[in-house]
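Let us work through a complete example step by step.
Step 1: write down the sequence.
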Amino acid sequence: MSKIIFIDVDGTLVDYEGKLPESAVEAVRRARANGHRVYISTGRSKAEVYKNIWDIGLDGMIGGNGSYVEDHGHVVMHQLITAEQAKKIVDWLHGRGLEFYLESNNGLFASENFEKAGEPVMQEYSRRKGKLDSENLTVRDAFPDMIFGGELYRDDLNKISYILESYQDFLDARDAFPDMQSGTWGGAGETALFGDLGVKDITKANAIEHLLEYLGAKQEDTIAFGDAKIDIPMLEYCAVGVAMGSGGDEIKAMADYITDDVDKDGLYKGFEHLGLI
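Step 2: predict the structure and record it as tokens.
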């Protein structure tokens, strides 16, 4: 019976430097040739899903950690931060002296000093993922299509990520914006590097539910692959949840199966183990 497969991008489909293993490409293409549907399910907005990923051959995507759902070019669901909410957040971050970037399907828009402030943060993020030469990583390496000097008061935003000077910044942002979904990434608790704000009650699991309803498909036919805490609701919702070997302890503890690291053909091995290829 054909399955519907959801694959996180960073740390699952591609490694933490954005490199796409050939084995992952082969796994997706062979699975689709066998009649399975394959969607990426990512924190990235559509503007961050580059041509090399689409060229694999996908049935669609879930983006913005669940705020956007697309099937073969058809927008199934898209929930945006309102222009009023976005302005309040931008003003609050400016007032707090925190650098940030705005995530939309039309691009990534950096705050005035994000390029400078973000460089050591992205280097630390890369170092934590075990990558060599992290000290030479630049913001433009990490976000090659990021727009600098663009309009920051916008009505097309899926999510806003901001650099944490301390964990208190996240706690204060959560208190300041109770109408938003507030989270962190790049580490757990006090070690987090970024905070983010998005549409309330949006998750990858919620987005999958919308997609299945649109497709007339069954939850029992779903499989999810992920590596991070943000992916846990997706793995819990799907009939089978697979964690990457390079993933965090929390997601590996709850997964139905743990495959190998992303850069050790983990996706291919997971597909093989589940009989998808």
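Step 3: interpret the result. The chain has two domains: 4-79+202-273, 87-199.
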